[in-house]
């Protein structure tokens, strides 16, 4: 999504009304139940939230120069990796093995064998297809990507082939490297 992103791609910025901020906060709580205890820290009620729109129809939500969330058209709001590193409990997690790390950091989607091999990990509780997940790496503390499951984790375990997680953002992508003022 952000493979060719630069701050020059931002078309315009507007300040978000408080009524819209309340709706965003409600949408975040509905989408990510783990975010509720820390939502006031991530997005304070009195914060000045800026909406920046890009040429590719991506909306970036910015507080104090930091992109907190983004969304493509009417898809769900997705937290950035910086937010996920500060508050790691807001998304369900999957883990890739060491062999998949270099491919994930280059933007490749995650194949099922990279999630089911020794060193990888899938949660016992089934995560349905289409769910936003944090991608952890074997032996690392912080997540290296955020993606969307292409199939349920139960299907990933049983089929063990095909794309398991479609990457959205990853460490080192242009959104990670850029700052939007």
What is this structure, in a nutshell?
This protein is an alpha+beta fold and 181 residues long.
Structure description:
This protein is of the alpha+beta class. The protein has 2 domains: 7-86, Sulfate adenylyltransferase; 93-170, Sulfate adenylyltransferase. The protein contains 7 helices and 10 strands. The strands form 2 sheets. Strands 1-2-3-4-5 form a 5-stranded antiparallel β-sheet. Strands 6-8-9-10-7 form a 5-stranded mixed β-sheet. It holds the Pfam family Pre-PUA. It comes from Smittium culicis. Keywords: Cytoplasm.
Rg, please?
A: 16 Å
Low-confidence stretches: none
Helix share of residues?
25-40%
Percentage of residues in DSSP E strands: 25-35%
The total count of helices amounts to 7
Structural class: alpha+beta
């Amino acid at each position: 999504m952000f493979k060719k992103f630069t701050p020059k791609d931002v078309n315009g910025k507007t300040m978000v009304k408080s009524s819209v901020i309340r709706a965003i906060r409600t949408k975040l709580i509905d989408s990510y139940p783990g975010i509720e205890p820390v939502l006031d820290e991530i997005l304070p009620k009195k914060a000045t939230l800026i909406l920046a729109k890009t040429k590719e129809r991506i909306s970036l939500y910015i507080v104090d120069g930091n992109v907190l969330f983004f969304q493509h058209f009417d898809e769900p709001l997705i937290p950035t990796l910086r937010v996920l590193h500060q508050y790691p409990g807001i998304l369900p997690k999957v883990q890739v093995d060491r062999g998949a790390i270099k491919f994930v950091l280059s933007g490749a989607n995650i194949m099922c064998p990279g999630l089911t091999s020794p060193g990888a990990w899938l949660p016992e509780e089934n995560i349905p297809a289409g769910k936003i997940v944090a991608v952890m790496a074997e032996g690392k503390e912080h997540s290296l990507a955020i993606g969307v499951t292409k199939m349920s984790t139960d299907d990933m375990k049983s089929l063990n082939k095909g794309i398991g997680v479609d990457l959205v953002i990853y460490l080192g992508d242009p959104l990670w490297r850029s700052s939007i003022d």
